[in-house]
Amino acid sequence: MKRILPFILVLALIVALSAPALADDVTITASVSEAYVIKIPDTTTNLTWGTTTAQAFGTIGLQSAKLIPGHQVSITVSGNDGLVNSVDNTKKIVYKIMDGTTVFTSANFTDTTLKTLTIVVEQAQWDAAPAGSYSDIVTFTATVTDIAD
Amino acid sequence: MNGKNILAIILALLLLPSFSLIFSTSVNGSSEIQVTVPSEHTVTVICGTGGSVKVGGAGYTGTNRFTVERHTDFSLSASPDTNYELVSITGSSICEMTFDDSGATLKKVSKDTEFTVLFRAVEHRDDPVGILIPVTSKTDSIVAEAVIAGDVASISLDKTEFDEFLSDDSDIGTVSVDISHIGVDINTVTIPADTVRAIAERSDAETSPGMSINMPNSKITLDSAALTAIAEQTKDDALSLHVEKIDEEKLSDVQKQAIADIPENKIIITVTLKNGDTDIRDFKGGSIDIELPYKPQENEDTKTIAVLYVSEDGNMEQIPCRYKNGIVTFTVYHFSNYIIVPGTIPDAVRHCFICGLFGHDINPWCQMLPICAVCAIWIIIITVLFIKKSKSRD
């Protein structure tokens, strides 16, 4: 009981600090937690072998967002170092994740907009790749940051 | 309140900000990208009338399909019937192909490919014949028609298809017209002026494409600035690129005299670009890479291979070049006559050790020093000034 007491005291202190002052006017405050749901490409994307035009990867962005004004969600991609051969991990097919005509590395979102990403593999990469299965796992990381950052 | 309780309060206070940190931690999600590269490819061989093809020792006519293991070579030879001759062997693929007198080899097959083998009756030898050739970029590939008449190939492209080919906003790299894989000698390629204009117009884009024309005897690659300069100077419908190995006899007397000291086993190449009767020589700062096949002699030191430009008035200038895998590559800023020289080049065209880029001739009165007269005078002036200053200090 003695150990729980200090925690109760601290919580009481917090409640006391946030309680409205006893005055003629009553101020009611409410807080809404910052929350967002991000969308990233499907769990698995199968590329068509030999295609040099842009292949669909998926969309990224915010499906829903309750952000504090001045905040944004930054989504970055990492791990896209090349599709690795399942038998010999020194054999790779280099690819690029594209946002339109530019290579995608990160994007900032403040509302529920989505960006369409594609994957491009150059002919020389297809030509040089030995036969076999290749795969790569890319990681999308979402972080809330200040817009000023 | 004892010490333990105070510690508990401090710990509780420290924990408070941690709760708020949890809400600002990053969140991760992963996606897996997969692809399977096939272990086999299909090579389709279309054999025209008037002959047959041999693949793996067996003869075939008409259209046949062969399964080839990825990254292995595929060879075929063409056998014309009596009173027929081989016109061309063309491949749809952008894989590397080599040719000999009667056949072709597709090196390291890496995609499905189609060969077309054409024969013609000997009596129709001088008749033009149409073939299909690949036009490729980094992102796309289309087929153009080439009409072969003698050593001239006239290329035509479907405008709508070519416009679509160029419409890709991404970096399409160099637009490559490949007429090298046809098994016959071609010295002149005519290209529609509209084709060059269309590529030049796209040079306004963020990524400016160049254009390369791959002929059996050479490969000429023009950068976007050169293409723009050509487009500005083009009036007639067709551009005619001519690359030919010529005899010394075709040079002017002044040029012949200028190259008299160069070893006999040199190769003289003439490169011209014409629009109608007009020579296009000025590429306004644009550059052209020229690649020429070169077979070194036995025991030849390929590091000593040099390329010389011979002007109309007989002046010679050495052009930096490199040799690799049987190809000599050098960059020029105008078309003219060029000489591939095996071995050491004559002193008369050596460049100044100091200002080689300015092309000053080696000073005639001091051949031992690899510097030009202008640089020699500057060195003397600076030395004299330095000595005078040193003496005045003393």
Describe the overall structure.
The complex is a heterodimer of chains A (149) and B (394). Chain A is mainly beta and 149 residues long. Chain A contains two helices and eleven strands. Chain A has helices spanning 4-18, 123-128, and strands at 35-39, 44-46, 55-66, 71-78, 83-85, 92-93, 96-99, 102-103, 106-109, 114-120, 132-146. The radius of gyration of chain A is 24 Å and the shape is elongated. Mean pLDDT of chain A is 84; it is low at 15-23. The relative contact order of chain B is 0.07. In chain B, helix 2 packs parallel to helix 3. Chain B has a 16-stranded mixed β-sheet that branches. Chain B starts with a helix and ends with a helix. By secondary structure, chain B is an alpha+beta fold. Chain B is built from six helices and 26 strands. The longest helix of chain B has 21 residues, at 3-23.
Query: How far from one another are the termini of chain A?
Result: 46 Å
Number of strands of chain A: 11
Q: What's the rounded overall pLDDT mean of chain B?
A: 81
Globally, the shape of chain B reads globular
Low-confidence segments of chain B, given as residue ranges, are 11-24, 357-368
Total helical elements of chain B: 6
Mean pLDDT of chain A: 84
Percent strand of chain A: 35-45%
Could you give a short account of the major beta sheet of chain A? 5 strands, antiparallel
Helix content of chain B: 10-25%
Strand order of the largest sheet of chain A: 1-3-10-7-8
Give me the Rg of chain A, rounded: 24 Å
Sum up the overall morphology of chain A in one term.
Answer: elongated
In percent, how helical is the residue content of chain A?
10-25%
Q: Into which percentage range does the β-strand content of chain B fall?
A: 35-45%
Topology order of chain A in helix (H) and strand (E) letters: HEEEEEEEEEEHE
**Which regions of chain A contain 5 or more consecutive residues with pLDDT less than 50?**
15-23
